[in-house]
Amino acid sequence: MPCKNTAALLKALADKYETPDFLTDDPSQFMHRFADPVDQELFAFVAAQLAFGKRELFIAKLNKLYDAVMDCKPKTARAESEGKLKTAGAAKSVGKPKTCGASFAGWLASGGHQKFFPKSQKKFYRFFSYADMNALCGRLAQIVEEHGSLGAAVRARYGQEIVCKPKTAGGARCGVAKSSGNAKNEGTTKSEGAAPLGLATASGIATVPPELRLVAALISLFPGVKCVSQNPKGACKKLHMFLRWMVRRGSPVDLGLWDWASAADLLMPLDTHVLQESARLGLIAPNAAASAKTAIELTKKMAQVFAGDPTRADYALFGLGVDGREKR
Questions:
Q1: Residues in the chain with pLDDT values less than 50
Q2: What pLDDT score does 303 carry?
Q3: Is the dihedral of CA 224, 296, 151, 61 positive or negative?
Q4: φ, ψ for residue 128, nearest 5 deg
Q5: Beta bridge partners of 125
Q6: Using CA atoms, how far apart are residues 159 and 220, in angstroms rounded to an integer?
Q7: pTM of the model
Q8: What is the per-residue pLDDT for 1?
Q9: pLDDT of residue 325
Q10: Per-residue confidence (pLDDT) for residue 155, from 0 to 100
Q11: What long-range pairs does 88-95 form, CB within 8 A, spacing at least 24?
Q12: How far is residue 84's CA from residue 105's CA, in Å, rounded to a whole number?
C-alpha cells in the first residue's frame, strides 16, 4: 500500500485537478457539448481514439469534426437552439454550447462521415488515414443501428456469461447464456467478421483475466478497425480513458452513463505522465512497461487510496505530470 504521505498527496491532487476546469484542454470536453447520451458516448469514443500526440493538434482535428456535424444541422434550427440555451440561462459548456438538436448518431447514420472522411490513404491525424477514420465511424454507425447505442453493445458483450454444459463423449461444451442487456446480435454478426484474439463471443472474452474483460468486450466490437487497439493485454490507454468517462459517476468530467458497470472494475489509463509520476512516487518500477500488467498493478495500489474508485488517481497523476512539465 502507498505510504500515508503519498496517499494524502494523491487525494489532494485529485481534489485539485478533478474540476470543471479540467475539461478546457482535455478531449473529454467534446462529449459535454452534446445533450443526447448516445451522441455523447459516440463522439467521446472518437475523441479518445485521437487523443495522442500534441494536445493542440488533436483538439484542432476534433473541432473540425465537431463543426462538420454542426454544419449538417439547418442554420435556422441551429441558431434557434443556441438562442434557447442562452435565454434559458443554461450553464456554460466548454468551448461551445451543447447542441441539443444536432445528432452525431444522425450524422453517422446519414453517411456524413463518408463525405468528411473519404476513403483515402491521406493522413487525417498522425498515422490514421481518412480511410481509417471512415472505417471507425462506419463501424460506430453500424453498432448504433444494431444495438441502439455503443453502451448497449458493450453491455451485451460484457454481460454474457459462460455456461458449461454437462460433459459429453466429445468433452465439455461451453455455450453462452442470454445477455443481461437489451442489445441485438449478441454473437458475431456477418458484417463484423472475426474479432481479434477470438473476442467475438463471451467464451473468447472469458479467456482474458477478469480485470481485462470490460475492455475486451469493447475491443470485440471493432475487429480490424485500425484506430482501435486490438489487444486487451496491451496498455490500451485510450480505451481505458474512454471507459473512465463512461463509467465513473459524480464527476464534473466523467459522464457516468454506463450505470451497469462499476468504477471498481476500471483500469488506470497509462498516459506518459501517469507512468512517469507513478514511477517517481515508487508506485511502479522505474522501468515498468506500458502494459495491462502494469495497469493492473497500479490500479490495485490506487484502489487502496481511492476505495471502489481507483481511476480517480488518473487526475492526480496526470495533473502532477503536466504541472511538473510546465514548471521545468
A1: 74-93, 100, 161-193, 326-328
A2: 98
A3: negative
A4: -95, 120
A5: 128
A6: 13
A7: 0.82
A8: 79
A9: 54
A10: 95
A11: 93/32, 93/33, 94/20, 94/23, 94/24, 94/29, 94/32, 94/33, 95/29, 95/33, 95/63
A12: 22
Task: Considering only the C-alpha atoms of the chain, give the largest distance between any 2 of them, rounded to a whole number of Å.
Answer: 72
111 closest CA partner among 132, 136, 135, 141: 141
Instruction: Identify the helix (H) or strand (E) that includes residue 109.
Output: helix 104-109
Residue (of 266, 289, 163) closest to 218 by Cα position: 266
Exposure string (b/e) for 167-198, b if CB count within 10 Å is 16 or more? Answer: eeeeeeeeeeeebebebebbebeeebeebbbe
Beta-carbon contacts of 288 under 8 Å, excluding residues fewer than 6 positions away, are 275, 278, 279, 294, 297
Q: How far is CA 233 from the centre of its chain?
A: 16
Listed residue (81, 12, 25) closest to 54, CA to CA:
25
- What are 260's three cell numbers? 451497469
Supply the Cα-derived Rg of the chain in whole angstroms.
20
Instruction: Give the residue carrying C-alpha cell 468528411.
Output: 116
Query: pLDDT tens digit string along 128-150?
Result: 999 999 999 999 999 999 999 99
Residue-wise burial string across 238-264, b where 16 or more C-beta atoms lie within 10 A, e elsewhere: bbbbbbbbbbbeebebbbebbeebebe
Distance (Å, whole) CA 10 – CA 213: 27
| pLDDT for res 85 | 37
User: How confident is the prediction for the chain on average, in pLDDT?
Assistant: 83
- Cα angle 108-193-118, degrees, rounded to a multiple of 5: 35
Residue 125, SS3 per DSSP: strand
Cell numbers standing for residue 209 = 483475466
Q: 230-267, pLDDT tens digit by residue?
A: 999 999 999 999 999 999 999 999 999 999 999 999 99
Integer Cα distance of 240 and 234 in angstroms: 11
| Residue matched to cell numbers 491521406 | 122
| Three state DSSP letters for 160-177 | CCEEEEEEECCEEEEEEC
Q: Say which residues have a Cβ less than 8 Å from residue 93's Cβ, sequence separation at least 6.
A: 32, 33
Residue 96, judged by CB atoms within 10 A of its CB (0-12, 13-18, 19+), counts as middle
